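Hey L., structure's done. Input below.
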Amino acid sequence: MLQLLRNKAQSTVIQAIVVIIALVFIFWGVGSNLMNNREAALTVNDQEITFQDFQLAYDSAYENMAARFGGNLPKGMAETLNIKQQVINQLIQSELLRQGADEMGIIVSGEEIQSVINDMVQFQEGGIFSLDKYKALLASNKLSPSKYESNMRYSMLTEKAVRSIGGFASASSAFEVEELYRQDNEKVSVSYVAVSPDNFVADIEVDNEALKKWFEENSTNYNTEPEMKLKYMPFTYAKVGEKIPVDDAQIKKYYNENLEQFTTPEKRNARHILIMASETDSEELHAEKRKRAEEVQELAKASDDFAALAKEYSEGPSAANGGDLGLFSQGQMVPEFDQAVFSMQPGDISSVVKTQFGYHVIKLEEVQPAATQTLEQAGAEITSILRDKESKKLARQLATGAYEGIIGAGSLSAYADTNKDQELVTTDYFARSKAPAELTTDATFLDKAFSLKAGELSSIVESDRGFFIIFAEAVKAPETPPFEQVKEKATADYKATKAAEKASEIAVTILERINGGEPLNDVAKEYNLTTANSGLMGRNGQPATQFPPSLLETVFKLSSSEPFPESPGVVGDTHYVFSFQEREVPEIQDDTDLDRYKQMLLSAKQQEILGAYLANLEKKATITRHKSL
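Output:
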């Protein structure tokens, strides 16, 4: 069950439901070449999911993921994380849930929708729902009330279905809860020895004939890299953009229409003292924490060194630097904290502020007022933005025209001879790891170039920098260097390989001997190895020790009756032989812990039922996917 909980914590099923439900609360804009496609992106049992719905879900998922990286998703990360497929799965699962809700007779009334909308703070003025604000906010985001309320109904129906299906989960028994608690909190220690190849490299004797034979068997490891000699025509956005004229009127128009882009919001610098209390803590503990925060607040009001108080009393991660939170703009902090800070004046000390993290005492240090760049200051940036917008389209057009010309002329060289104004770059031979400076960071270009055969012309290659047409003039295949040329490296590799083999053999021998009853410490000494004790370790690897966390799963299977693993553990090139020493099983001290584990078990069961329900629906469903996806 413990592993189930860990697996379910990453459940794409539940993540899908959360994302889809959240979509209705997000205001979006339109801006994708998929939007105008009249065909359905997905069809689930004859129910269509439009390209607009797909794009909205994708944009939301992308922005959420980007936020985890500080607002910018690293290059290639969207493909690595397979965001598109995740969104497709989420949309399908959400539609299946909606259809399932219909079959179960679940409905969402107009009164329920109205109640939820009335309670949404973004539609309120002075804490009361404002119809005018509701319509205005929807209109500014290109949504009609009927469309928004339809989306709301869809999300609430999905949410009800999740709750209804989860309701079939049985309650967690006291035995299950206590067993989970003990498994999750038990600790184990082992005595161990690390057998590293480094211990044996110096002992490896090198026989020249054996070395040569080993080199012949592994000669491809020493091959040179393939090399290419290219001619290519670049149509980079940067150079194409230089040819696009931008006049003062265009710059001024863009500036006036996008003034917020050149405005830096007001920022504030504050320090805080945090007395931590979580939402799951008892009322008694919260009362105690609030009282302590109030005492600290009194001290802060009487002191002229807030930073020193923060270092002494704060329980938050900023305590070490005097509670300093740096500069932040409105909306970056949790709402209660944000509201307090942006209602203060420099030098003010707040009353006690409660947030999801606990109780805060805040001192406002500095206010940096909002600032807007002048038209003159923003001119160069706007010029670049306007050129960038047009350069991508123009670069594609130029590359397409050139490619058609090359095909018509019969070769890239023939086309270049009659089009002297077109840039043509010629390289000498180069390996991928030693590409010319302008190509080193362009993985897309290099991928395509090194896939070409000698005399082959590429299609139009699009990379982050622009478009390219590449011709492979010549290719040098990898070559195996003479043994004498790489003898020094081959010798080092040979010794490392033999040392690794010896480390493996010795680790196996040590394990066999301790299984036979010999003490680990005595056997280790024969090989000049040192035995260590891990100390008590939890399943989460805490507290940290030098024993590898990746071997903990095996460690927790050991016991007094079966103290040794079946084989040595391997981490990197080091082999670990270990022996069970002690297991500490905690006694349950607090009913709060039991309640938390009870809820964890119940949630896991609910997720398991929901996952099985969706899997069954998907198995029976007819699902089609547009070829462009």
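Residues 1-37 have pLDDT under 50 and may be disordered. The chain has four domains: 2-170+609-625, 187-221+486-584, 227-241+387-476, 266-369.

-- N.
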